[in-house]
Amino acid sequence: MSQEELGKSLNEIIKHRLEKLSMIRKLGYNPYQYVFNRTHSCKSILENYDDLKESVDVSVAGRLMSVRRMGRASFAHIQDQSGRLQIYIQENKVGKTQYKLFSYLDIGDIIGVTGKVFKTKTGETTVFVEKLEILTKNIRPLPVVKEKEGKVFDAFTDKEQRYRQREVDLNVNPHVRDIFVLRSKIIGWTRDFFVEHGYLEVETPILQPVYGGAAARPFKTYYNALDQVYYLRIALEIYLKRLIVGGYEKVFEIGKTFRNEGIDRNHNPEFTLLEFYETYVDYYYMMDFVEKYFKYIASKVGKSTYRFEGHDIDIMKKFNRVKLFDLLNGEIGEDLYKADVAKLRKICDERNIEYKPEWERGKLIDELFKEFVEPKLIQPTFVMDYPVEISPFAKPARDGREGIVERFELFIGGQEFANSFSELNDPLDQRSRMERQKRLKDKGDEEATDIDKDFLVAMEYGMPPTGGVGIGMDRVVMLFTEQKSIRDVIFFPQLRSLE
């Protein structure tokens, strides 16, 4: 926003800029160009000054972010993806027409300049403009963000506005761009890690006739060509395990997943999930493997300790391992392993924990765990051995403990990051558990799943012993970028319509 626009309404500013657009066209320039031949980025000029200074012509393009007009000469800053660079434009150098063009420019315009590189008296690397081109005329003003002596004033900080207008956020808050660059790298490093360990990356259906693989309420849609209700997947598990049956021994997928549930700083209905499956291993092996993965990403980021949820998390230390009932019993003060539904409801009532009438034993235990244990799991901790009622795809504990399955969840900073099983491969047991889930669904449990007949048929062909893991990638990015909200690591998070 220029000085002359301060105090004007948005409509007045847009009208003023449209007038400038018309004047630019009258000067003979196309304000929406097709191409600009860049030779350098802003960063490459700043980093290679000694090789470029005062002898090499450079062409660089970017968005105009600041202007200091001084009569027949002006300083300005342009910004591209790599950073910001100062330019100096002088009427005697570019001529009256191009300098007139410059007078019609506003912060937010995208321009290209060609010239030689020099340093000002204050030591700032600058391009002395010999040729100026308008590439895109900005009509709607960017928020005014002022900087002085390294401090930022009037920053674009309103959270909801930033999420709704991420394109503006990325332009005026360069640190936000850095977060998403690191996100991209973390996803890339994740792929590298699994490929290096012999995994095959695959893609499975997003639209599914039967949703499954997790306890969640789905989004529903309609497939006109098939005349059938379909669902957006809530997990990747079912189809990946069918590929294991098909003979692949190590598979992984990173994909969008959808759960029709609440929105808060730790949950977004559309999120990125990593799932991977490996044959002839169990959940003990997968604990070691998941820990190795987190340490690998930390080494790539280049730090051991991360500030997350108000705590310093040391990823390079050995991850803790503890059984669910050991933790829960310690918090409640009595042994809940054999507690029945009536006993668990009584404990919930005494501690003001809300529950639904249809909840059975496993769900009540899980709710008590979430309330009294989960927030205290700060350093990386594998919580092992869950109730079978809430783990329909995990093998029974091999030590014979009734009602317990071989499952772990990884918690960091009081949040769940990973979920893993020694995968159930007994087709008769799997059928029984799916039938039980169907009964829960019929009773009104919106998170229970239906019977997937195709999956059961696949299981009857025989699935080898397998370990499987699901990891929420958005939370992984939150940890390694030290962000407080999942919305800060998703380009366009879901928000309620303003209408």
Helix content percent band: 25-40%
- Which segments are poorly predicted (pLDDT under 50) over 5 or more consecutive residues? none
Write the CATH architecture name of the largest domain.
2-Layer Sandwich
Extended strand count: 20
How many structural domains?
2
Question: Strand count, sense and closure of the main sheet?
Answer: 8 strands, mixed
- Could you tell me the strand content as a percent range? 25-35%
CATH superfamily of the largest domain: Bira Bifunctional Protein, Domain 2
* Overall body shape: elongated
Question: SS-based structural class?
Answer: alpha+beta
The CATH topology of the largest domain is given as: BirA Bifunctional Protein, domain 2
- Alpha plus pi helix count: 16
- Strand order in the sheet with the most strands: 8-12-13-20-19-18-17-16
How far apart the termini lie comes to 28 Å
Oligomer: single chain
As a whole number of angstroms, the C-alpha radius of gyration is: 29 Å
Q: Kindly provide the name of the CATH class of the largest domain.
A: Alpha Beta
Mean pLDDT across residues:
94
